[in-house]
Amino acid sequence: MAWPLGGHAGGTVIPPEFDYLRPHSVSDAVTELGRVGEDAKVLAGGQSLLPLLRLRLAYPTALVDLAGVGELRGVRQDGDQLVIGAMTTHHEVLRDPLILRYAPVLAQATATVADPAVRHRGTLGGALAHADPAGDLPAVALALDAAFVIEGPDGRRTVPATEFFSDYLETAIGPGELLVEIRVPALGPEWGTAYEKFNRVAQAWAIVGVAALVRREGDTIAEARIGLTNMGPTPLRASAAEAALAGVSLHNGGIAAAAGLAAEDTEPSADLSAQPDYRQHLARVLTGRALRAAAAAAS
Amino acid sequence: MARIEVTVDGVRYVDEVEPRLLLVHYLRERLGKVGTPIGCDTSNCGACTVHIDGSSAKSCTVLAVQADGTEVTTVEGLVRDGELHPVQQAFHDNHALQCGFCTPGMIMASIDLLNENPEPTDEEIRHGLEGNLCRCTGYQNIVRAVRQAAGGGPAAGRSPAAEGSPAAAEVTA
Q: Which residues form a coiled coil (chain A) (predicted)?
């Protein structure tokens, strides 16, 4: 019998061939990655990797599946930080009481990722390691000043968000290394946060997204952090807008003026959804909305 | 080849599969569970939605080896003692389909939605089903069906996998 794809007596297969390994600890996973070499791919929830394999855009010799590594799941508090295991699913992030209390912007953005079935399997660590600039979570991690804990054959190292996202789909995770946890600051009630995403249809990628974190002192913005989704090959901070917001009153047009700077130093791409100038327009509009919503949520 | 043990619709299977075999192809071609259709092969349409340990998943975006050790429920496993699942019955009562291709995935996603949120508003129903496309655009009756199923009580949100299977037969490849 002729099969339409793959030509295989066992039935239809679409992805290329690979070995499948399922370690049960981080150290075993690192050992397997080292043994297979550079052509190994880490499988987390698979919601980005499997589409790439089906399209044959990736040809790994082996997948190292982290589903059996229990130590990579869950959220805990460590002093003034939250520590989120890389294999914590989007579904778990949305319901985690520590995240909802201390890092709600992560839940706000995660709620816009794909759809419920994808969120059941997709993971925070997978989304960050995949580093798609149109993904919602890299910009949030950048705005949160997250720290990325990476384990490799030489032990653990911690990389700040400013150094983690190095280029389009590229991160500081080296060959043979593994993202094990993401550390974010536990924000108090003086912080308000919001994520504004613009897309045309349900479950689509962001054409542009903006994560805003605002620390209020009365009617004044003491500090603001803004992360931009899909405004370049990596997630970006809207640094000019952030600088313009320090000490600004909530009532005299300062937010609108700062939002007007949100697209400074960005070089967004053109695609079927939007041209660069339209993306820059969206960044300014969405930054204004996100800042107002974030300021309203702070107490 | 990799060895998997998986329970599908109450029957335990021990099988050898290629690691690259997608779960949806395992279900359809190895087990004959053709009630789960393949729509888009791009994770968009949701036609192939099943439950893995009681949670919805798009079976074109899961490897069969990832289902090792889990309990999978397809639309074919919802009937209990000859009775349709409350969500199946509600889809029937409300004619919540036109061509029917999206229906298995819609039903599986609706059960998951009602498990999470037993009394959803219409807007919550529409958002909860955003991962499932009806290309006939017959959404009005789908929303009505989910609303009716919700009105019938918590059984509408129950996946058979969550209640434990009937004595599972074992099939070894």
A: none
Residues B107 and B72 in one domain: no
Residue A10 C-alpha, separation from nearest chain B C-alpha, in angstroms: 8
Query: What global pTM score does this model have?
Result: 0.95
Contact A10 B21 (CB under 8 A): yes
CATH code: domain of residue B95: 1.10.150.120
What 3-state class would DSSP assign to B145?
A: helix
Q: Which domains does chain A have, with CATH numbers?
A: 16-66+76-187 (3.30.465.10), 191-297 (3.30.390.50)
Question: Which residue of chain A comes nearest to B63, CA vs CA?
Answer: A50
* The amino acid at B21: L
Q: Please answer whether residues A179 and A125 qualify as being in contact, where contact means their C-beta atoms are separated by less than 8 angstroms.
A: yes
CA-based nearest residue to A75, from A62, A64, A88, A61: A88
Euclidean distance between CA atoms B35 and B43, whole angstroms: 18
Q: In a mutagenesis test of the B interface, which of A22, A50, A205 is the best target, namely the one with the most B β-carbons within 10 Å?
A: A50
Q: Would you say residue B67 lies in a domain? A: yes
pLDDT tens for each residue of A94-144? 999 999 999 999 999 999 999 999 999 999 999 999 999 999 999 999 999
Residue A240: both structure tokens together = 């000019």
pLDDT for A10 beyond 80: no
B111's tokens: 């059960």
CA dist B125 and A122 (Å) reads 21
The verdict on B91 and B73 lying in the same domain is no
The CATH number that applies at residue B9 is 3.10.20.30
Number of domains in chain B: 2
Question: Does the distance separating the beta carbons of B131 and A118 come in below 8 Å?
Answer: yes
Does B44 lie at the interface with A, CB-CB under 8 angstroms? yes
Express each pLDDT in A14-45 by its tens digit.
Answer: 899 999 999 999 999 999 999 999 999 999 99
- For chain A, say whether B66 makes contact (Cβ under 8 Å): yes
User: In this structure, what token pair is assigned to residue A237?
Assistant: 């901070």
Give the residue on B whose Cα is nearest the Cα of A63.
B19
